[in-house]
Backbone:
């Protein structure tokens, strides 16, 4: 090979790495944002990135962009390693054509999606784009459609993580929405179908981009964002942490870590954690921290429907998915947002061979006209469907209240729960003692001279005779009533027993979950 050819290659590579002009890069940095290549360097193990399609460009003559044909077409694609594991990546470059998606741009993303699916490795997309490239018209729309199709094919086969680090508007939002997890950078990332200008013109509502589709809005209100981060570096570190709990594909088990926390460890504090007064709150995270390895966990969608907890942890080194009520928020009641959050997480864990651990303390489903008219029946059925359909090991602990349909929903024996345990403080009934007494003894209460005293006495008798866990245990609906301090070893031994679980379902194309 001649020296001239090598020099030309080096010149082309330098041109591609430079991306946009220095002024645009400087403005990008001034907003606290990394460039696309800087982000990939921070995300991947040092020196592991292999770039693809470095010299791809758009068809300039057809699209009227003859004077602007940057190498790479505004997106950097390829593969690298995270903790020694192969991952496929793309990073949109907002400094080049605004990171807009055109034919060549979309083709590059589709190529890494195809490779990720064919080779059984996770896909991480770094989104920072002005949207569809207007000059390319239907070609840009076709590019999005091709990406959406591949996101759908890959769903449940490989983990897909989207990190939104800048604007993401219009049709662009649906690719992240089709992936498993969305991370948004607070202050720089926005997601919306129609922007503030269109909303102002159509509905006359005034709203800023941040209030319409910023990270806080999507983390707390819409539930679109599973995680938020303060800056690019934090978002990339969060993606690495999340991946440490996930398998590379649906045919593998999640990564095992040799535990430093004894599987036989007990914790006497758990015996005193649930208040004697059943109306008094406590923090379920304290229960979880005292049970899982080293008290470490990664909460998912922490800001959305906080009355239900979902997240990842380890027991004896093995990854588990956690689903739990939070009595400290709305008494742990199940509402529309909570069941949607739970159903989605349960189905993800089932896709990727992650056993489910459920901690139950709920008075039931949220009452009210807004919930009924909002479709709590339809939405609640999603969580029933998710638990019933899941074939991974399913373990549950009832720590206190499990009333009505909520008892059934929370991984009960009736939905094929494998091991169902309860603490002595558990209360299982069709409804709470107060409601039951008002129905059963309404005539006696109506005739009583001191109604409040009689009601309190009847409630106590009902609780002692009908809601205690030994009634359910006598029928085999609970496998064991255990002292709270034994929870960790009981769960670990049960998981060991279920490690070889294999369950076949009736042949079908797919079920019809009540979406």
Residues:
């Amino acid at each position: 090979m001649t020296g001239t050819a090598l020099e030309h290659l080096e010149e082309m590579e330098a041109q591609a790495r430079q991306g946009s002009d220095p002024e645009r890069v400087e403005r990008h940095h001034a907003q606290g944002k990394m460039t696309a290549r800087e982000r990939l360097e921070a995300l991947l193990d040092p020196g592991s990135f292999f770039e693809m399609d470095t010299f791809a460009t758009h068809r300039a003559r057809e699209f009227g962009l003859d004077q602007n044909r940057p190498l790479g077409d505004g997106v950097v694609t390829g593969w690298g390693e995270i903790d020694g594991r192969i991952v496929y990546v793309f990073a949109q470059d907002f400094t080049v054509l605004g990171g807009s998606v055109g034919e060549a741009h979309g083709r590059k993303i589709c190529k890494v999606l195809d490779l990720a699916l064919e080779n059984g490795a996770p896909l991480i997309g770094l989104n920072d784009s002005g949207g569809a490239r207007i000059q390319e018209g239907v070609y840009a729309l076709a590019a999005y459609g091709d990406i959406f199709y591949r996101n759908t094919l890959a769903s449940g086969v490989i983990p897909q993580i989207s990190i939104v680090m800048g604007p993401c508007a219009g049709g662009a939002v649906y690719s992240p929405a089709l992936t498993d997890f969305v991370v948004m950078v607070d202050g720089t990332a926005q997601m919306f179908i129609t922007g503030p200008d269109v909303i102002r013109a159509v509905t006359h509502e005034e709203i800023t981009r941040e209030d319409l589709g910023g990270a806080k809005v999507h983390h707390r209100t819409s539930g679109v964002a599973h995680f938020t981060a303060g800056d690019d570096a934090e978002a990339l570190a969060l993606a690495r942490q999340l991946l440490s709990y996930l398998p590379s594909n649906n045919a593998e088990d999640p990564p095992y870590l040799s535990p430093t926390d004894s599987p036989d460890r007990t914790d006497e504090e758990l015996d005193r954690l649930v208040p004697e007064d059943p109306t008094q709150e406590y923090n379920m995270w304290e229960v979880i921290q005292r049970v899982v390895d080293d008290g470490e966990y990664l909460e998912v969608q922490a800001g959305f429907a906080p009355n239900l907890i979902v997240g990842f942890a380890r027991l004896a080194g093995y990854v588990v998915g956690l689903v739990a009520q939070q009595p400290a928020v709305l008494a742990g009641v199940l509402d529309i947002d909570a069941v949607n959050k739970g159903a989605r997480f349960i189905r993800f864990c089932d896709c990727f061979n992650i056993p489910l651990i459920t901690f139950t303390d709920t008075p039931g489903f949220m009452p009210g006209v807004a919930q009924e008219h909002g479709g709590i029946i339809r939405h609640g059925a999603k969580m029933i469907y998710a638990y019933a359909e899941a074939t991974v090991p399913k373990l549950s602990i009832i720590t206190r209240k499990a009333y009505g349909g909520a008892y059934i929903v929370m991984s009960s024996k009736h939905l094929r729960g494998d091991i169902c345990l309860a603490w002595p403080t558990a209360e299982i009934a069709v409804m709470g003692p107060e409601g039951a007494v008002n129905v059963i003894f309404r005539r006696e209460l109506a005739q009583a001279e001191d109604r409040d005293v009689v009601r309190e006495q009847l409630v106590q008798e009902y609780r002692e005779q009908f809601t205690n866990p030994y009634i359910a245990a006598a029928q085999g609906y609970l496998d064991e009533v255990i002292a709270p301090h034994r929870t960790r070893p009981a769960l670990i031994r049960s998981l060991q027993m279920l490690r070889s679980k294999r369950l076949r379902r009736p042949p079908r194309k797919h079920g019809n979950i009540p979406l």
The domain at 268-430+468-498 is CATH 3.90.226.10 (2-enoyl-CoA Hydratase; Chain A, domain 1). The first strand starts at residue 50 and ends at 52.
